[in-house]
Amino acid sequence: MTFKLNFRFLGGSLVLIATVLYGFLLNNLNLWSDELYSVLMAKDSWGEMWELLLTEDSKPPLYYAYLKVILVLFPKEYEIWAAHFASLLLFIGALVFVLTEVRKDYGDRLSLVMAATFVLMPCSLWLAFEVRTYMLSAFLLFVALIYGIRILDKPKNSDFVKLAFTTVLALYSHYYSLVWLFCLYTGILCCLLREKKLQKSGKKFFLTAGVAFGLFIPWLIVPLTTGGDISKFWYVTKEFVKLSPMFFLNPFEPEILQSVFYMATYFVTTAFSFVVLCGVFSLAHFTTKEKKLFLFAFGTFVATYLILIGLSFVIRPLVTARYLKIFALIWYAAGAVILCNIKTIGKTFIFTAIALFGFSYYDIAEISFDLGIKNAVTQIKTYIPKSYKLMTLDNSNLFCEYYLPEYTCLAIVGEQGEILRKPSVMKNIAYYSDEMQEVNFILSIYNKIDDLDDCLTYTSIYRRGQNIKLCKISKEYSEMLLKNSLEMRLKNIKGVDS
Fold first, then answer.
1. What are phi and psi of 27, to 5 degrees?
2. Distance CA 333, CA 331 (A)
3. Half-sphere exposure of residue 45, counting CA atoms within 13 Å on the CB side?
4. Following DSSP, what letter does each residue of 314-367 receive, concatenated?
5. Are 73 and 82 in contact (CB under 8 A)?
6. Integer Cα distance of 26 and 82 in angstroms
7. CA gap 262, 257 in Å, rounded
8. Residue 406, Cβ neighbours under 10 Å: how many?
9. Which residues, 6+ apart, have CB-to-CB distance to 336 below 8 Å?
């Protein structure tokens, strides 16, 4: 009884501490271009969102649907706060899952170590707030890992149902999930064959796989039929592929490695990768169940990464350090097994991670968030505190590269910070021309605005030392930008057609 109370106290305290520490960073008024796109998609009606997904964006729809539901729960003026909360909620959910479901299979000690690892790793500070699908995908893939391994022991019918349900959700969250789940199911099949359990569990396993992947086939048709046209201007290049190992060294974008304490994040992340690699040579120390968890977590991730690298050189560049974040919780689960079993390494790493956590926390607050703790409960109603309407232009993101490779109109932001947009704005350029008055524009650092004087300068979120300019421009100038954008887009289309 005392031990159970201790576990409940430690587990509950860990969740509470994580909620408070991470919660202080929740009040973030910044949205970078891809995050802005996520909010815009979620704000469309269900019909409009569906049309956009079929005609302009072939990404799986689950995250946008999830974000839409979360935004509905909050007043309109708090939608940016709510968008970040949606990711934090998933992170807290992952901790609760570890302290309940993982505990059932692997005991108190491993579940506590794993939950602590999730909280202390710097990448979690990013996953828990970014308004993109990464946290949702990471959570679902981790859940699929646990349920997948569970059916190798003494599975109940409900375990197969849980695995099938989680698999479908994961497939509809990110296309990389398809590659990883292929590796997971292949691993499960190999274990069933090796352990001579295929006759007993084979029918249920194949039914689970068939139903799950069968339910994904209707959506898989979308990128196969439209994805080539939609993503012809996709920004991922071979340089991104070459930099993808940064995930194992520092999970953040290379541009922000100039942060004050980035070496703390670099050290903890690199040390953790070293710990995981040590586990490959330490399997004799593990119990059978823990060994299986490590091998599945480590093996499926590494296999997926190698497959994506191969596809990047054979078909087209695919993999980036950013996208690998959806496997972060799986990677942390592998490391947690090592930390739990090799006590000297485990204690040393945990104490080091705790000591350096504050430095990574400070960096994330300073680089990625506008006011963070300093703005604890005030001014959360506005995106940029100006009384003018705001139109955002940015040519450094997927959205513009799909449509207008130079000046892309992503959003109009109203006085109270609410984001306004007509559905499918790229097909309704006239909407802006008809109502255009003097407006404020954010122009990215890539655009030429040397001839504009009436500008405010904002520190770039991602590129320290480089700035974004907020400029007041005339109706004529804005119409000229839109005209140029449309002409460039049409020129691109003609060039592709020819």
1. -80, 70
2. 5
3. 4
4. HT-----TTGGGGGHHHHHHHHHHHHHHSHHHHHHHHHHHHHHHHHHHHHHHHH
5. yes
6. 9
7. 6
8. 17
9. 110, 113, 114, 117
The pair of three-digit structure tokens given for residue 188, joined into one six-digit string: 């499960």
Residues near 66 by beta carbon (within 8 Å), at least 6 away in sequence: 86, 136
Question: What's the rounded Cα separation, in Å, for the pair 144 and 146?
Answer: 6
Q: Does residue 146 contact residue 101 with C-beta atoms inside 8 Å? A: yes
- Count Cβ atoms within 10 A of the Cβ of residue 243 and give its class: 0-12 exposed, 13-18 middle, 19 or more buried: middle
Q: 457: part of which helix (H) or strand (E)?
A: strand 455-459
The angle subtended at Cα 118 by Cα 115 and Cα 123, nearest 5°, is 175
CA distance 395 to 403: 10
List all residues 6 or more positions away from 248 whose beta carbon is below 8 Å from its beta carbon.
269, 270, 273
Tell me if 365 sits within 8 A of 129, measured CB to CB. Answer: no
Phi/psi of residue 391, each to 5°? -120, 135
In this predicted model, what pLDDT tens digit does every residue of 146-199 receive, in sequence order?
999 999 988 899 999 999 999 999 999 998 999 999 999 999 999 999 988 888
Measured CA distances, 393 to 124, 405, 410, 438, 469 (Å) = 29, 11, 6, 15, 11
Predicted pLDDT at 205: 92
Helices (H), 98-249: 103-120, 122-127, 134-150, 157-171, 176-194, 198-222, 228-230, 238-243
- Residue carrying the six token digits 């946290």: 135
pLDDT tens per residue, range 324-336? 999 999 999 999 9
Distance CA 376, CA 21 (A): 12
Q: Which of 374, 399, 276 has its CA nearest to residue 327? A: 276
The answer to whether 329 touches 138, Cβ cutoff 8 Å, is yes
DSSP-assigned letters across all residues of 119-147: HHSHHHHHHTT-SSTHHHHHHHHHHHHHH
> 257-301, pLDDT tens digit by residue?
556 677 888 889 999 999 998 888 877 667 788 999 999 999 999
Spatial separation of the C-alpha atoms in residues 51 and 94, rounded to whole Å: 32
Rounded mean pLDDT, 9-36? 81
